[in-house]
Specification:
five-stranded mixed sheet, 3 helices, about 200 residues, alpha/beta, Beta Polymerase, domain 2, elongated, two-stranded parallel ribbon
Amino acid sequence: MSAIAIQPEKLRDLVAAALGEKARSVTVALGEVTVEVSAAQYYAAMQVLRDAPECRFEQLVDLCGMDYSTYAEVGTEGARFAAVSHLLSVSLNQRVRVRVYAEDDEYPVVASVTPLWSAANWFEREAFDLYGIVFEGHDDLRRILTDYGFIGHPFRKDFPLSGHVEMRYDEELGRVVYQPVTIEPREITPRIIREEKYGGLH
């Protein structure tokens, strides 16, 4: 029989008490608890969330990268890159979201949580591949979705839609080759047609 889920405000208070100064903030929005921690406290905080009796988040359900550079509440004032995790306690029937910002936008680094949850392995590789977030302590941090010769990180907000390179099969060489992208960057503006009395409207 599963445990009855507690109210988000109660969970917020329990998590805040367990983390203490390791948490920058613990908030409730739309019925969900979000914990924000610093990069320096990230691994220790995640270990508390896994092991503390009132938390017991045994499962890491998801981990993804985020580029907050175009978010109104962050903009150019705050840190740009973050890793966001969703944790689940099966035994206590509760969930929490954890966000950690990388301190350096040029070289974003946060700790790997693969020693705590092995499920983080491919999630962290995906965040590294798509956002360029380096997970310190990950023992196999390499691209997982893009090609070996891919340049850049395609989910960053400033990554060009056409990319930087393209690949094609070269008949003479008998192999795949990479070359600078030949597509001219352009902005597609939808065509708007206005007709008088269209659809019987005046």
